[in-house]
Amino acid sequence: MQQVGLISDTHMAGSxxxxxxxxxxxxxxxxxxxxxxxxxxxxxLDYLETVAPVLAVxxxxxxxxxxxxxxxxxxxxxxxxxxxxxxxxxxWPTPRIATSPDGTGLVFPEGRAADLLTRKFGRPVDVVxxxxxxxxxxxxxxxxxxxxxxxxTYPGKRHRPxxxxxxxxxxxxxxxVEVEMVNLERLxxxx
Length: 191
Known about the structure:
Blueprint: E1 2-7, H1 21-27, E2 32-35, H2 43-48, E3 54-57, E4 70-71, E5 74-79, E6 82-87, E7 98-99, E8 106-107, H3 113-121, E9 127-129, E10 137-141, E11 144-148, E12 166-173, E13 176-183, H4 184-190
Parallel strand pairs: 1-2, 2-3, 3-4, 6-9, 9-11
Antiparallel strand pairs: 1-12, 5-6, 7-8, 10-11, 12-13
């Protein structure tokens, strides 16, 4: 069994060490962390790597770096027997999967999910992880699992202003996937 942390939209400046301690606590014990962009500085990846190896995709204004830790627009990561497609904005690149006007849901185009997602990622995927809206979401589309872990630092409209947001954790064993959304504000209050 492998455990994978999912995080996006950290929007950290400088060293990236402004990420709340409770976020690192929530990721403790994972084997891998996937960051879906809008990190803004490479330091946040370094900081997350104090917990586990990190693979990321770029958001709109993210820096670049040599090597494969930070990919371009999309990437596919295999964990156990599960292919995880990563992208910052689920709407790009095409084919487009639109977000609802409030960012809390998805509007799926006609057609089979497997075909659409294969075109988007260049190969078949079982799970799609994305960010951009800062709104946490777990949904299924024609058998594919889609997850937006939200933002730990700048949560969406469903959260109280000034509160911490969310990240997610996956448990993967063979082809079986379990997902858990972690509310960092709740964890901070109870921890």
